[in-house]
Amino acid sequence: MIELAVQKGESLTKKLLSFSRRRALSPQVINLGARIDSLRGVLAQSVTAEIQLEFRLPKELIAIRIDPTELEIALLNLILNARDAMPNGGKIRIEVERVDTSRDTMPAELRGEFGSVSVSDTGAGIPEEIRERISSHFLPQSPSTKAPVSA
User: pTM for this one?
Assistant: First the structure.
């Protein structure tokens, strides 16, 4: 029990440091679908009984290089935001798939095969008055910077 408590404390500390951006990233090659599948229990505990979690995970390996803690934090935050948008219940869908952007008009460094995680919900959506500010803390601060918005 003590060892488990220490491991949980270590994990929480890493997540908090990562969230505050004081921890160096530790990218690893992981199986994206399997990693998200391993988070089912944590994600289920983060929502109310009125919210149904639906997972659409591939059977085939989708190997990606990512910091697993960052992935977990991002996914958990998306689930918590979706939960908050559905106070009377609803559905959250988490879908993992392979995406090929080779033929897209993307810059060369963004062309190829990638792992994609999509999170959708049946919530009310983001109020119009705050849509422009949603990702502003991810962008360089300047008076002319506007956050990209996708509805």
Answer: 0.69
